[in-house]
Amino acid sequence: MPQGVLMQPGQGSSYWVLGDLYTLKAMGEDTGKAYALMEILVQPQSATPPHIHSREDEAFYIQEGELEFQVSDRTIVATPGTFVHSPKGQLHSFKNRGSKPAKMLCWVTPAGLEKFFAEVGVLFEERSPSPPPVSPADIEKIMATAPKYGLEIIPPPSPQA
Fold first, then answer.
1. Over its length of 161 residues, how does the chain's per-residue pLDDT go in tens digits?
2. CB of 101 within 8 A of CB of 67?
3. pLDDT at 131 (0 to 100)
4. Greatest extent of the chain over all pairs of C-alpha atoms, in Å
5. Pair 19, 43: CB distance under 8 Å
């Protein structure tokens, strides 16, 4: 039986994922697998590719900065206080179009996807506070690992010949 979670500022395991910092605040083990909560620091001009979750709903609450969300065929600009919910099966993505980092909370319900970020990410270490460069191997790792978590990443369209 879960005992509850108390996570102070700065606590939680953090991982660099394609240049963004994901801090795991509540894991499935903490919540009876009901949900997981992550704090995400999205670097300027950073984006997630369009993707679809087959196992969980995903919800976002913007705390700082401005993010552009693509949800199905809609594009919205999310500023602090904005809440975005994307149910499983819905295509979505986000991008920080600004010049400063943006920060948001992300819930996944039920839990499980938090393990994807831990698996594909690079453990954050205090002595290297800036994101490591994103390499083709990082992208390959994400593409290869995504199906294990029921995640479909939509590749960009091929350039016309």
1. 557 778 888 889 999 999 999 999 999 999 999 999 999 999 999 999 999 999 999 999 999 999 999 999 999 999 999 999 999 999 999 999 999 999 999 999 999 999 999 999 988 877 667 788 888 899 899 999 999 999 999 976 666 64
2. no
3. 82
4. 58
5. yes
Token duo for residue 148: 């294990």
Q: Is the CB of residue 123 less than 8 Å from the CB of residue 15?
A: yes
Q: Where are the beta strands (DSSP E) in 6-114?
A: 13-17, 20-26, 36-42, 51-53, 57-64, 67-71, 74-78, 83-86, 92-95, 102-109
Structure tokens given for 66? 């401005």
| DSSP-derived pairing of the beta strands 13-17 and 20-26 | antiparallel
CA distance 99 to 50: 22
Residue 9: exposed, middle, or buried by beta-carbon count in 10 A (0-12, 13-18, 19+)?
Answer: exposed
